[in-house]
Amino acid sequence: MKKWIPVETYPIFGVVGVAVVGASYYLYRLSQGPEVVWDRKGDWRPWDKITHDTNQKLITVNPEFWEKRRQYVKENQRAVDKI
Fold first, then answer.
1. pTM (two decimals)
2. Is-contact 37 44, C-beta < 8 A?
3. Could you report the per-residue pLDDT of 7-31, keeping only the tens digit for each?
4. Which UniProt keywords apply (predicted)?
């Protein structure tokens, strides 16, 4: 085996292997983000389903704002439906 792979190349293989694993992990993490859509048969623009009164944040700083906005949107929708 020493004739085929010289001992001096082991560090090179190690560094390249670590780089390949790191790049693969990075690409995997990018592919799992919320802006990536893998469903080709379904709706390819799911962000269009979000309404104006939907809070998409993980932490709500001002929950009263979203409640008032939800009520405002419902009232305006009723006014539009009457017309």
1. 0.46
2. yes
3. 899 999 999 999 999 999 999 999 8
4. Membrane, Transmembrane, Transmembrane helix
